[in-house]
Amino acid sequence: MMQINDFRQTTLVAMFTICSCGIGLAQDAVFDALVKDSQKAKPGIADRQQKMLVERYDLADRAAKGVTMPRGKPVQEAVRVRLPEGTTWEKLAAMSPAEIKSKKLWPAGFYPLPHPHHEVGGMVFPKLQIDEVKKQNSRDLTRFDLDYDLPQHLLPEFPAPIYLTTRTDLGDVSKGQLVTLANYYELFKDALNPKQLEGLRLLVTPFPQQQFNSTDDRRSLQPHSGVSCFDCHSNGHSNGATHTVADVRPNEHRRRIDTPTLRGLYVQRLFGSQRALKSVEDFTEFEQRGAYFDADIALAAKKGVNPLERGSQVHFMAEFQELLDFPPAPKLNLFGKLDSANATPSELRGQELFFGKAQCSICHPAPYYTDNLTHNLKVERFFDEKMINGRLASADGPIKTFPLRGIKESPPYFHDDRLLTLEDTVEFFNLILAIKLTGDEKADLVAFLRCL
């Protein structure tokens, strides 16, 4: 089997063939060679990624008792990051960043998480999304060169419910269905005005993208119409689909992208985990013109970029996105705090920690639990740079503060999916912020986060 590190070079060489009349491009032969080489390398790539995941995490299906997402999917519990042998979380919390770094004790699961095939990158979709899209409209989001890597029980509920700020009386407007071009009109024709409905239509319309298009260097077996915004942001939420960030070079510095929920977009003022775009219109336009094609304008032109018209199409899409509401949080009052009459003692203690000792509220103030800023956590204080499956673990830089409302419904966590559960997230920030929480305090903090 070919070496994985040589795979990109091999596929590039396969793009050109020597014809009897001289040097020329034989498109069918080129694509056939690309498919053959990709499928030959695929098992090794998958094994490499799964070996890394198992070394980093406990991937078992272990649900928290009585804690579910709105449509009943269990929420996973417990710390899943594996510790270095002979270490405990208490011992780590007692050390300084320099000491953890010098002793090489930074947990493997706290390093950046690579893309399923980081050297190649591109959009990758979980199986449930692929199957439902194929069922509804025969569009196949399968890649012939790689598959999604995380197990379904660690991903968001699918399909997720949709709540509209303008029609709270309707509850889940999706009625339990994945919203696509095949059913959006029937589901939303009586809930939206014509402009909003057109915005939704554009969000579920597939457009050419780097890996899914009609060229002979695509990653779908058949020529493809492309992907839609809602292929990643299923029902305006998230299905766990991932990509690699488009506007960073060289490749080893490009980050795996966590697909964030679009719920509560109306309270946000920054868009993109690091780009700090100032409006969702800016972000929508950037995605179509740049991110869909790895910020390569020549490839975008070749593959069929669809420049959206700012004054109508982009605006219409943004108007619908800004109707997407957070999920109900029955234990919160009008100020985003717990109603003491309905909360448990553990949840109330967790709230006190959140706004006190744990310092969470400095970046995540109520009621929406975001400060609409970016912060540099300087995680690189804890480890030396190292290459992990094609991803150079190095400084992350400033990262956007994402809202925590509805957080239990949006696993995995952090901007690159490296934290699988809320318990992992609490342990991570316990070290990053040096707040030295006890075991009981960590449990109380998780209990509060599940109420948001």
Any descriptors?
452 residues, mainly alpha, Cytochrome Bc1 Complex, Chain D, domain 2, 3 domains, two-stranded antiparallel ribbon, globular
Structure report:
- The chain is mainly α.
- The chain has helices at 7-13, 27-56, 89-93, 97-102, 127-137, 184-188, 194-203, 229-232, 280-289, 297-303, 310-321, 345-354, 422-432, 439-449, and strands spanning 17-19, 22-24, 63-68, 74-76, 374-375, 386-388, 391-393, 399-400.
- It has a two-stranded antiparallel sheet with strand order 1-2.
- Helix 9 (280-289) crosses helix 11, helix 12 packs across helix 14 (439-449) and helix 13 (422-432) crosses helix 14 (439-449).
- It is globular.
Brief rundown of the structure:
The chain is built from 14 helices and eight strands. The chain is mainly alpha-helical and 452 residues long.
